[in-house]
Amino acid sequence: MGYRVIGFGYKELQQNINLKTQKEKILKIIQFFRFLILENKLKDDSAENIQILKNAEINCKIISGDNLLTTVKCAKDSNILDAKDNIIILNTIKDAYYLNKPYEKIDITQLLNSKQIDFKLGVTGTALIDIQQMNDQQLIKNILENTLVFARCKPEQKTEVIYLHQTLFNKKVGMIGDGSNDCSAIKQADIGIQYIYIYIYIYIYIYIYHIFFFQFIIGVSFYETDASFSAPFSYQKKSINCITIILAEGRCVISNMIECYRYYVTINVYKFAVALILLYEYSNYSNFQLVYINYFIAIPLLSFVSLSKPLKGLSKTRPNCNLLNKENAFRMGSQFILGSCGLFACYYHYIYQDFYQDIQSLKNGHLYNDQNIAINIMFLASNIFFLITSITYYVSQTFKQRMYKNRMYFIWFLILLIYSILLYLFIDILGFSAFQIVKELHNKKKFLIEQLVIVLIFNIIIIIWEECVIKYIFSNKIKKL
């Protein structure tokens, strides 16, 4: 039934009893009085949220100092154990039996070595001591891997359980606890969560089962209790659904970091390509052109990406945190090549025009030529390349909402993209004097349209390459835990 059972007894003592009498002598021959039976109810949404974590392939286990049978019942109620699971109770290594056949002893070592594992284990602290003394590391891993319930565990054993999962399985482990008994385990875990406030400590033991541990990305502390000193973050709601929320937020943040990294590196490569071209022309961007590229395009887009909201649910896939992995290198490398080729194509299209003038040397003591068609066409082209690069790197499903739902980002992107395209078509009207557009370019509409077509063709190729080719190559290589 999963009830907590407390037995009460009494003994009549003489008035002249010696207070120095040993406690053991006084407690002999106690008269039974009553049982106090407490039902250990879960929060209404606990089972639902545990199931969400399991569906996302996050391995959930329960560890407690309570009775093993009570803990197993709570594990079933919370969906940590499925109703169809065959459960083996492991009091010690030599004392094991199926939960539904308590009088039939089994040899757990032989059962694990048979490799026909169709059961889940419930382990006591005493059995955990036996497990740690084993010499067969693979057997230890098999036991821990199939154990979903740890009961009758001392505070230091909770820490040891987490340490074993970290070292043997090389996985990130999170710990939720509610009191001082959990502090060391929370500190040992990669992620620490402190759960519920101390003034309802008795309420916890009656209505809420209080300790879970599982694998996820970030930790949270609900209120300031003893365990909160070990938990790195605070969260003031009582529902366990905060875990799902924070996991989704964490994945969204990682996706944003990856996007910003890719985008920032790529646009700097584009700047280097433009610098090489303009160096040949003894020229460079004007001051306001640099300000526009950096403070109107790059920085706002990088900032608005951080406003992207996570999906409400959790997927089985994980964002790859390694910024130097093959996928990132391949994505950015292909963008470097295609984008740089697009910029050079614009320049080569210009030098084959009849009005192109090759600059042989600097005149009148100028350090560089600040009035040059090459500067203007590189400025116009880099604007669109910088914008398109941002959307090709935008990570959406399965970690974030669609791009158009990030309104600040999407509106700003559309405004700049439309303006950048119209600038090619109406450069004499929309070209601010601060851009220092040479007047000779105002009359070359056909040339500018051809330049725009080249830029759009290369950007379409980049989008197709990113959305079709690269996603197809890496679609089956997404990292899972």
Automatic annotation (TrEMBL):
Keywords: ATP-binding, Magnesium, Membrane, Metal-binding, Nucleotide-binding, Phosphoprotein, Translocase, Transmembrane, Transmembrane helix. The chain crosses the membrane at residues 196-218, 261-280, 292-311, 332-353, 373-396, 408-432, 452-474. It comes from the Eukaryota. SUPFAM superfamilies: Calcium ATPase, transmembrane domain M, HAD-like. GO terms for cellular component: membrane. GO terms for molecular function: ATP binding; ATPase-coupled monoatomic cation transmembrane transporter activity; metal ion binding; P-type transmembrane transporter activity. The keyword Thylakoid does not apply. It is found in: Membrane. It is a multi-pass membrane protein. This is Uncharacterized protein.
